[in-house]
């Protein structure tokens, strides 16, 4: 744990996930706000209490909880705090917190039907039940109020909300114009390009969100914003934001061109491409690797580099010859 500025305190908490530690932030203002909470594990709770203690606080001093997005490593630890506290974030968090039977059914149906169109063989379809695995580290709490793009952060004059969708459909960042500081959740990370995670559509039956295209759009919108420092959800603080944005966009483009080459060699289903891109990791992290693969395919489709053909065994992606130079 380290302190970079007296009114923003970083609290580094362990997670049971491959990503490693997550950072929560204590934001001092008219109220004391905990931005992100860590995971709902005993280890994380102890680290949170210790981090607060070193700053002269305890859990009961926190007056408000704000989450950058619903993922369990950012939102699960809210259960350590009094249920009476204001609990705020983007409205799209709520379905992932409440986890109603209706939503869980919608979630599974979405992934079953998507898997079919992606050409996932029936012997792999069981992965869908593992997608729910991490949700046990989540919290069922209900948001007391919701934040939208452009709104002020309650209790923190000068801070405003920027909607930064892509990694999650509930993702927001907090920005302070006076000194260009941003609390960025998982939107911009120094060493990792955030996964454009697949999520069921917000309204059942509608088209699914195209998370990678959304993500690219969201980071492009930050490019011209004077950001001096990003306090991220994982890893080191970021100072050269424009450089990071360009690097993320370039790397993603290269990955997509690699996928285009695969399709050029052999028209394929998304599943086939995924297992070629991630031969070892696929079985361990099917949700993440399929999200990444579909992101690249959405990108190539959007650029009209490829096209799709629906067949009985799923969608086959082929090169769009019109898009060839
Ligand atoms: Zn996340």
Automatic annotation (TrEMBL):
> Which Pfam families does the UniProt entry name for this protein?
Lactamase_B
Q: Which Gene3D superfamilies match?
A: Ribonuclease Z/Hydroxyacylglutathione hydrolase-like
Name recorded for this polypeptide: Glyoxylase-like metal-dependent hydrolase (Beta-lactamase superfamily II)
According to the entry, every stretch annotated as the Metallo-beta-lactamase domain falls at 21-234
> What SUPFAM superfamilies has UniProt attached to this entry?
Metallo-hydrolase/oxidoreductase
* Matches recorded under SMART domains: Lactamase_B (SM00849)
């Amino acid at each position: 744990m380290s302190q970079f500025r007296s009114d923003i305190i970083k609290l580094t908490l362990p997670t049971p996930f491959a990503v490693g530690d997550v950072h929560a932030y204590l934001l001092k203002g008219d109220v004391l706000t905990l931005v992100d909470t860590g995971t709902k594990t005993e280890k994380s709770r102890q680290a949170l209490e210790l981090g607060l203690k070193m700053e002269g606080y305890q859990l009961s001093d926190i007056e408000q909880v704000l989450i950058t997005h619903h993922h369990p490593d950012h939102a699960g630890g809210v259960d350590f705090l009094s249920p009476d506290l204001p609990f705020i974030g983007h409205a799209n968090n709520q379905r992932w917190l409440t986890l109603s039977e209706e939503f869980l059914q919608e979630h599974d149906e979405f992934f079953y039907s998507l898997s079919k169109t992606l050409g996932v063989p029936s012997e792999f379809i069981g992965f869908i039940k593992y997608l729910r695995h991490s949700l046990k580290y989540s919290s069922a709490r209900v948001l007391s109020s919701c934040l939208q793009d452009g709104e002020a952060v309650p209790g923190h004059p000068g801070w405003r909300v920027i909607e930064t969708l892509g990694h999650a459909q509930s993702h927001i960042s907090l920005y302070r114009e006076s000194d260009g500081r941003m609390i960025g959740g998982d939107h911009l990370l120094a060493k990792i390009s955030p996964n454009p995670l697949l999520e069921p559509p917000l309204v059942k039956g509608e088209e699914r969100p195209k998370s990678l295209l959304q993500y690219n759009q969201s980071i492009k919108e930050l490019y011209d914003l004077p950001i001096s420092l990003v306090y991220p959800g994982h890893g080191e603080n970021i100072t050269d934001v424009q450089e990071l944005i360009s690097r993320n966009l370039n790397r993603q483009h290269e990955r997509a061109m690699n996928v285009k080459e695969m399709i050029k060699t052999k028209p394929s289903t998304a599943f086939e491409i995924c297992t070629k891109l991630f031969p070892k990791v696929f079985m361990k992290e099917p949700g993440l690797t399929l999200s990444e693969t579909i992101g690249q395919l959405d990108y190539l489709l959007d650029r009209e580099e490829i096209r799709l053909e629906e067949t009985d065994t799923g969608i086959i992606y082929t090169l769009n010859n019109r898009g060839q130079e």
